[in-house]
Amino acid sequence: AELLKRCEIGIAALAVVGLGFSSIFVLMAALFGFGVISALFGPIKYGILPDHLERRDLPKANAWIEGGTFIAILGGTIIAALAFSSGDNVLLFGSMMMGLSVLCWVSARMIPATGSKAPDLQIDRNVIRSSYTLVMEIREDKRLWRSALMNCWFWLVGAFILSILPTMVTELLGGSELVVPAYLTVFAVAVAVGSGIAAWMSSGRIVLLPAPIGTALLGLFSLDLAWN
Fold first, then answer.
1. CA distances from 168 to 87, 159, 171, 188 (A)
2. What angle, rounded to 10 degrees, do the helices at 210-227 and 180-202 form?
3. Per-residue confidence (pLDDT) for residue 228, from 0 to 100
4. CA dihedral of 16, 20, 22, 28, whole degrees rounded to 10
5. 36 touches 10 (CB < 8 A)
6. 8 Å CB contact between 63 and 195
7. Are 139 and 36 spatial neighbours (Cβ–Cβ below 8 Å)?
């Protein structure tokens, strides 16, 4: 985690350079780097929880991580939208990105060290082959496979809604760009509340019950969004 966040500082610096020179190529390279860091950090932040917490505390920890992740993502989106409304200020955006990246690195250094649970594990560095093997292993357990599909569906629908929300607010609802952050805030708070409810339903147990219930509610609200 600390190494990834250290690399993130360099990527943030690259993004600042891209902003300063108005280079789309450099900015796209930085965006790709941020995406890779996020993809690698995601499994880490969930994977280290069993090393630091008791089994009964894992549902609550997952809720905190899930809610905090969405609030952080959407909070950053809101702050960027508000900052952009004042104009293209490279110094402001650069200071924000560098400051936050350094803060994330400092926070990562505070994570207690954990040992390797499987030191003899051989990791397949072929991403395609290892991903296929992992999917096949999950498919062997039908309950786990269905829950994994539900989880993937949640992220797919969430990404889709977030991408069309600004357009819906400005063109269909007649709101201004300053209203979009308010809707994003509602979305982030709703995810955090839903994560808390899932932890409450689990009652300290590792259960899959919240997955089908959440998927059903997601489908109903998606239908309501489509019809309106």
1. 23, 14, 5, 17
2. 150
3. 66
4. -10
5. no
6. yes
7. no
DSSP 8-state secondary structure symbol assigned to residue 168: I
Report CA-CA distances (Å) from 165 to 105, 180, 224: 31, 8, 14
Domain ranges of the chain: 2-112+130-227
Give whole-number Cα distances, 220 to 200, 205, 216, 224, in Å. Answer: 22, 27, 6, 6
User: At 170, is the pLDDT very low, low, confident or very high (cuts 50, 70, 90)?
Assistant: confident
For residue 16, CA distances in Å to 73, 91, 94, 206 come to 19, 9, 5, 43
pLDDT of residue 192: 79
Instruction: State the Cα–Cα distance between residues 216 and 58, nearest whole angstrom.
Output: 24
Residue 171 DSSP code: I
Q: Is 141 helix (H, G, I), strand (E, B) or coil?
A: coil
Helix (H) or strand (E) holding 128: helix 127-139
